[in-house]
Design brief:
alpha/beta, Rossmann fold, five-stranded parallel sheet, four-stranded parallel sheet, globular, binds phosphoric acid mono(formamide)ester
Length: 372
């Protein structure tokens, strides 16, 4: 189940990426004139400070600072917020389709005064075969001070960060990581559970909270990032799905989150049993585009794992308020979740989209060294 191994990441797998893993040394020197503090390292790595490549690079203190910054920025008057990163330049580089992540990063950047430019694989020289490295160097030469990258290859943001020396924000890489999604999911949980935007973030913030992540875990970068992040704040994470979509190796995603205590991550194949203890249920899309070679019976899957109103009603009376229903999107109504549940009172799906704006402002400020 290579999709669930946390590393090391092969940079040579990135289509369009250079097959070498060039160090950012010569490029970094150039980059320091553009990225205000690109000389020191993040989490002992060679990446520019402010990079957000994986939740594994974030300490609990980092998470606390990002969420506090999101709150400070949210509370600012729009005119003041629009001066925070005025005259700074960020490139959005998207090799895969996106609605939520791309739009919220772009709107977040614009709300801070950033000049943005979008490069998509569908309408750029990437179509002519230009490599990730050359595309990144081109964007840097044109003045980009940070790059937001979505790529189908796990590890591509690491490569881009190395070759450009710029802060890179991972907007989803293959089946690997989607760190800003995990952060916005965390903020959504805190707000919807009533802990508030000013909740103290530490190893016990989510003590007593059970988050069930259900569906196509194997192909999900969202599941991986959440399963790594939430237990470090005290949550119990229960992964739920059939073996084809949830291999046992997933238990190793965050084995050390509760040292000496209860396991950080559990697997429960029975969705109804998992739901009985759930504070939050995160539903995942079946990634049909990544299912090749998987023997999955979709009708059987829907029967066993779809979140529908009758399944929730069976949890009554607790079901009136719990579990909170989340989904990173895009939703496939009628497959992993019914429209009735997605639009129902327990759904936090639109809240998640809104929190994307708040959290992505904060990670942009962190990348560009602004002070909200
Ligand atoms: N959650 C998420 O990544 O959605 P998009 O693919 O629309 O960006």
């Amino acid at each position: 189940m290579s999709g669930l191994k946390s590393g090391p990441i092969s940079e040579t797998k990135a289509p369009h990426a250079t097959t070498k893993a060039p160090r950012a040394t010569t490029n970094a020197a150039h980059a320091t004139t553009r990225a205000p503090h690109a000389k020191t390292n993040v989490a002992g790595s060679q990446y520019a400070p402010g990079s957000l490549l994986t939740v594994e690079h974030l300490s609990v203190a980092d998470v606390a600072e990002i969420l506090a910054s999101a709150t400070r920025l949210e509370r600012m008057a729009a005119a003041e917020r629009a001066r925070v990163l005025v005259d700074r330049t960020v490139a959005l580089l998207f090799y895969e389709s996106s609605t939520r992540t791309r739009t919220s990063f772009e709107l977040a950047a614009k709300s801070l005064g950033v000049t943005t430019t979008l490069v998509s694989d569908k309408s750029s020289s990437i179509e002519k075969g230009e490599s990730l490295k050359d595309t990144g160097l081109t964007l840097r030469a044109l003045g980009a001070e940070a790059i937001i990258l979505r790529h189908s290859a796990s590890g591509a943001p690491f490569l881009l960060a190395r070759v450009t020396g710029l802060p890179v924000l991972n907007a989803g890489d293959g089946m690997h990581q989607h760190p800003s999604q995990a952060l916005l999911d965390l903020r959504t949980i805190l707000l919807r559970l009533g802990l508030g935007a000013d909740a103290a973030i530490n190893e016990k913030t989510l003590a007593g909270v059970t988050v069930v992540i259900a569906g196509d875990i194997r192909h999900s970068r969202v599941a991986r990032s959440n399963a790594m992040l939430l237990p470090r704040l005290g949550a119990r994470v229960v992964l739920c799905g059939p073996p084809e979509l949830l291999p046992e190796e997933a238990l190793g995603l965050n084995a050390n989150a509760h040292p000496g205590g209860s396991p950080a991550i559990e697997i429960e194949r029975d969705f109804d049993r998992a739901l009985r203890s759930a504070t939050v249920v995160m539903m995942l899309r079946i990634q049909k585009e990544r299912l090749e070679g998987t023997a999955l019976n979709l009708a059987e899957y829907v029967e066993r794992y779809q979140l529908h109103a009758a399944r929730l009603a069976a949890l009554a009376p607790r079901a009136l308020v719990m579990p909170l229903v989340m989904h990173p999107g895009p939703i496939i109504r009628g497959l992993e979740i019914t429209g009735e549940v997605a639009d129902g009172p327990q759904s936090a799906i639109e809240d998640q989209v809104g929190q994307g704006l708040a959290v992505r402002r904060a990670v942009l400020v962190r990348a560009l060294g602004g002070h909200p």
